[in-house]
Specification:
alpha/beta; four-stranded antiparallel sheet; 9 helices; 18% helix; globular
Length: 513
């Protein structure tokens, strides 16, 4: 049984848009652009207080739109976060929703609901451009042939993406399932276990490097940068890292221009500030924070280019732009680029504790704003909302249909700034370990494991329950578990109810009861 979205006519008071009966070719329905940065922290942008990194285009959109102070990804790492965005489901309900290698099979079941498929059925042309990291094909795909299933099979009419991350092989663009510029006389081979005979690596040929690795990135060398995994061939197809931003911006401009006459949905996955950080030369030195700061400035430019093309085509009045990040920040994620040494007073997570990989709030609480020129009034919202909720919310906005059983919730009035009644609670996760945000409080159960990982980020593992009021104590310094025992027990019970059957008891210091 399906839940049909509320007819668009009933939303007139909320959006101020003249609504008509939902039709596949209805020009009154807004275009939707979702821009997702990669490893951008809560405090990495000017509108959240950053002073060392100029982000004027993002600041303008955020300050003229609706900015959320309690906007969340579901997860503190990329793949599960994106999985939740597209499927409207908690990623921890899928045991395979974890950081994927570049040759992993498609993570999303093509027979299940996805947000882009819903929008297709509602009459939208859909596009995915940029970072993907949700797998392709059926595992270990043949990169010299059309790769299926992929973005097309989960609802995207057009796609131009990278398979995983820019630090993993294969270092090629895949457009509509086909590697761009692939030469059949120079076939591509990828292996995540063994190198190919005679192929240089960071360990065997360090003289070929223009960027040094710090941990975990010492396999094949592409563009002078060592990667995760081994790759052979495809020399004409390999990207140039410094040109990646321009390449994807051009693809975005083409998609918007070609689809300007009909409603479209665009997912634009920025690769910044994920490692390796290789800004275009015109952005080098844009900050005093080194490459990490510079690529955030580059990302700001990319967003500005999206706005400019929409404006030039007179589409801004009818386009909802949603900006966020897949997870929190990290400094040394495998390369020696002085991100930590040049940090100065900048705080990537702002007032929050932790970052990427972390159960602390800095792992999943991320920048999030919605801009819709003339339809959403400038405001700051404290409502608790998650990227996963876009699935149900956009269904109501566009006249789409969603199935029963999604974890996504319809908060369209919250996204439009007409209500401050967001989620009551949210399960967040970091590499399979989970916590609960409920109201102003966060509960983190006692987990086995190290306090930090090789990046230096705190993971949130502890021998005791942690209970924080993150409104009064955003830095999660004061553990209230012994001070508020009744709240602790109530949140423990709710946590166990929500994750029943989906957590591994072996990761806890003691089995939870």
């Amino acid at each position: 049984m399906k839940k049909t979205a509320i007819p668009l006519a009933t939303l007139t008071a909320l959006s101020g848009v003249a609504q008509t009966e939902a039709k596949n070719n209805d020009p009154n329905r807004p275009n939707v652009v979702v821009i997702l940065a990669d490893d951008l922290g809560f405090g990495d942008v000017g509108f959240a207080g950053a002073k060392s990194i100029p982000t004027p285009r993002l600041d303008s959109l955020a300050c003229n739109g609706l900015r959320f102070t309690n906007g969340y990804a579901t997860s503190a790492t990329s793949t599960p976060s994106r999985y939740a965005l597209f499927t409207g489901m908690y990623p921890w309900k899928n045991k395979d929703a974890k950081i994927l290698p570049g040759d992993a099979p498609l993570l999303i079941n093509v027979n299940n609901y996805t947000m882009p498929q819903m929008l297709q059925k509602a009459g939208y042309t859909t596009g995915a451009i940029g970072k993907w990291h949700l797998g392709m094909g059926e595992g270990h795909p043949d990169w010299n042939d059309t790769i299926r299933p992929g973005a097309k099979e989960v609802g995207f009419d057009y796609s131009c993406i990278i398979a995983a991350t820019n630090d993993r092989v294969p270092t090629v663009f895949v457009e509509n399932g086909v590697v761009v510029n692939q030469d059949p006389n120079d076939p591509i081979y990828v292996d995540y276990d063994n190198n190919f005979e005679g192929e240089p690596t960071a360990l065997t040929n360090p003289e070929l490097l223009k960027m040094e690795w710090s941990h975990g990135h010492n396999n094949s060398i592409v563009n002078g940068i060592p990667r995760i995994g081994f790759m052979k061939g495809g020399n004409d197809a390999k990207w140039v890292d410094e040109d990646m931003a321009d390449y994807f911006v051009d693809k975005v401009k083409n998609f918007v221009t070609e689809n300007q006459d009909n409603p479209f949905f665009l997912y634009y996955g920025l690769h910044q500030p994920h490692v390796p950080r290789a800004p275009h030369p015109r952005f080098v030195g844009a900050t005093e924070l080194g490459p990490r700061g510079d690529v955030i400035v580059e990302a700001d430019w990319c967003v500005g280019q999206v706005v400019d093309v929409l404006d030039s085509l007179n589409l801004l009045d009818n386009t909802m732009i949603i900006f966020s990040s897949d997870n929190g920040p990290v400094l040394d994620d495998g390369y020696k680029d002085n991100a930590r040494e040049l940090l100065g007073d900048h705080k990537p997570a702002g007032p929050l504790r932790g970052g990427k990989y972390s159960l602390y709030d800095g792992g999943t609480r991320v920048p999030l704003f919605v801009y819709w020129k003339g339809k959403i009034q400038p405001a700051v919202s404290d409502a608790l909302i998650c990227q996963m909720d876009l699935a149900a919310s956009l269904a109501e906005l566009t006249g789409g249909e969603i199935p029963d059983g999604l974890d996504s919730r319809n908060y369209l009035p919250v996204l439009l700034g007409q209500s401050n009644e967001g989620r009551d609670e949210l399960i967040f996760e970091a590499q399979g370990k989970m916590g609960l945000r409920q109201g102003d409080y966060i509960l983190i159960p006692p987990y086995k494991g190290p306090k930090t990982n090789q990046t230096g980020n705190e993971l949130g593992n502890s021998n005791e329950f942690a209970l924080f009021n993150v409104v009064e104590d955003p830095g999660e310094v004061n553990n209230l578990a012994s001070v508020e025992p009744e709240r602790l027990e109530a949140m423990k019970a709710e946590f166990l109810r929500l994750v029943e059957g989906y957590y591994n008891p072996n990761v806890f210091v003691e089995p939870l009861k």
